[in-house]
Amino acid sequence: MRILIVDDNNTNLKLLTRLVKKIDRCEPVAFSSPDEVLSALPDLDFDVAIIDYQMPVYNGVELYTEIVRFEKYADVPVVFITADKDMTTRMAALNAGAIDFLTKPVNPVEFHARIQNIVSLAEARRQLADQAEWLRREVEKAVSELRLREQEIIERLTLAAGYKDPETSRHTLRVAAYSEAIARELGLPDQVCIDLKLAAPMHDIGKVAMPDTVMLKQGKLTESEYREMQSHAQIGSEILAKSHSSLLQLASEIAVSHHERWDGQGYPNRLAGDAIPLSGRIVCIADNFDALTTERPYKPAWSYERTVEHILGRSGTQFDPACVEAFERALPVIREIMEADRREQAELAAQKAALEPGRRLAAG
């Protein structure tokens, strides 16, 4: 326990230093002038301060007022030593933060008893602070573990949703990455952007309820099939809605709202404008961008340029104008995500092609 001692009288300073050394586990940190103390801040470490009241340039209260400008010293107990018994002096010290007084000449027995009590108080405060820090770390650890479990649940459900069609899995991951890029350009908090990336892959989870004749159909859907496909938004929301997980609740919100339109002509609830959750407005753009730039059974892939022009042109009708502006700012990141995914798919296709002759020989 380090005890700061400040006294401009050399004899008193030596006495106080000697008395502090007699207290168990205490180390004196002695200064003979306030200027020396101020020059050592904020690198000076101490747990209790003993300060003479009457000193030149700065009196004890003025010195302590300067010390506590540094947050690290705000809770340090301070004892003032004074020969002045005037109540005004003592009130000034109390207002500055004093917890005790010692009167000159200092009585060694009284000094030991008072300072020992204050040291015990400082130790108790330190232990309490350590326990609070330990508790904070434990809570943070528990929250982190819970978030990892939630993330694993989402990843497994996403994997299940794309089991029949591997391209669906890649689509959901690209949409998640695009959504995060747009959210960051909107200036959303970091944790919100991360949560959106984790929840967005679940936007089409309702398609698990779609029959294979609709999901895997080669060619354009009939009107009745299209209506049936539209039901996936509501079904996906219902699958996730009653979860206690904040991530799955966000995923439910995205599932039900990512096909709504800014002009109110979307589905399933024909919401318009700000009535559509922001998460759904963001994922709507990301989902459309990916759907247009990739080949589907019923259409070829559009070019990057044509897709961008299409989305920009539908600002204020299909898409939220603010989200479109964020999408436009995020295009360098979005294009890199798209191209990185295509490079990865090309590499996987090349590896598969290289293994195919061996498989044929093994089969023969």
From TrEMBL:
Residues 146-343 form the HD-GYP domain. The modification 4-aspartylphosphate is found at residue 52. SMART domains: HDc (SM00471), REC (SM00448). Residues 168-292 form the HD domain. This is Two-component system response regulator. Keywords: Phosphoprotein. Residues 2-119 form the Response regulatory domain. It comes from Rhizobium paknamense. InterPro entries: CheY-like_superfamily, Cyclic_di-GMP/3'3'-cGAMP_PDE, HD/PDEase_dom, HD_domain, HD_GYP_dom, HDIG_dom, Sig_transdc_resp-reg_receiver. It comes from the Bacteria. PANTHER family: CYCLIC DI-GMP PHOSPHODIESTERASE TM_0186, CYCLIC DI-GMP PHOSPHODIESTERASE TM_0186-RELATED. The keyword Phosphoprotein applies.
